[in-house]
Design brief:
The protein is an alpha/beta fold. It has helices at 16-29, 56-64, 70-76, 88-95, 101-108, 117-135, 150-159, 164-178, 193-203, 206-217, 220-224, 229-250, 265-278, and strands spanning 5-9, 34-37, 52-55, 78-80, 83-86, 141-145, 184-189, 254-259. It has a five-stranded parallel sheet with strand order 2-6-1-7-8, with helices on one face. Helix 7 (150-159) packs antiparallel against helix 8, helix 7 packs across helix 12 and helix 10 (206-217) packs across helix 12.
Amino acid sequence: MKTKLIMVEGLPGFGKSTTSRMIYDILTERNIEARLVMEGDVDHPADFEGTACLTEEEFEQLLQAAGSFKEILIERAAQKGSWKLLPYQKLKNEYGTSFPDDLYQSLSKQDIYELPLDLNRRLITERWEAFAEQALDEPAVMIFECCFIQNPVTVGMVKYDAPEGQVMDYVLGLEKAILGLNPVLFYIEQDSLEYAFRKAIRERPEAWSTGFVHYYTQQGYGKHHGLEGVEGTLDVLEARRKLEHRILDSLGLTKERINNSHYDQETYRTMLMGKLKLHGVIQ
């Protein structure tokens, strides 16, 4: 069976975005239908991006305070078992400044990635299972920038400092859901984690690095180990990298570790083409 899913993983600043776009370009140049899904896509078919999860009671309370957005929230809420799912980031993108900040903040506190780990894992795994079933009938090769390993590790280890086995089982459950798509995983490596992360800090908006450092040091693993600032964040990232390597070794799907330390795009692209040919994605 042909590969229906390509996933690109690795730490921040390691080149996931560049790699994902290169793979998309290589496929489309060969007239292979492909869909590129980048990190943060509010229409992600296998993940929940900017989506709140509320009980029926919480949803009713939200409606009472929603004002003119009450009917919109009712229309956009999806029923998932006993839960209501609301794509609040998508609503904010659509309605801009007219979407009340207090409503946005209230919903963001109930984001699926703010839920207890067991419930988060269940909802996310069900989402991947539904995606895999649908993707079998789709003509396009899906290309995902991160979220397969990154999100379970980030919420499991970084946010909750959960036992390693629990985080590993989370990812292995997602793998089980997608094996029918004959997936290929590209894991991007860098010789120097510190160089790559500091480069990302220099190149990205200050709000990104501030939020990232806060997330990595003020909860879960970072807080439990007394880590602070950029130096502390690098310690968490190193621990994350070691865990991701152990997870990678446990995965049975087709996978490739790719070193992107030299940032030489032409050589890198040639190497990627070779790997895609090796695994039968292109001729």
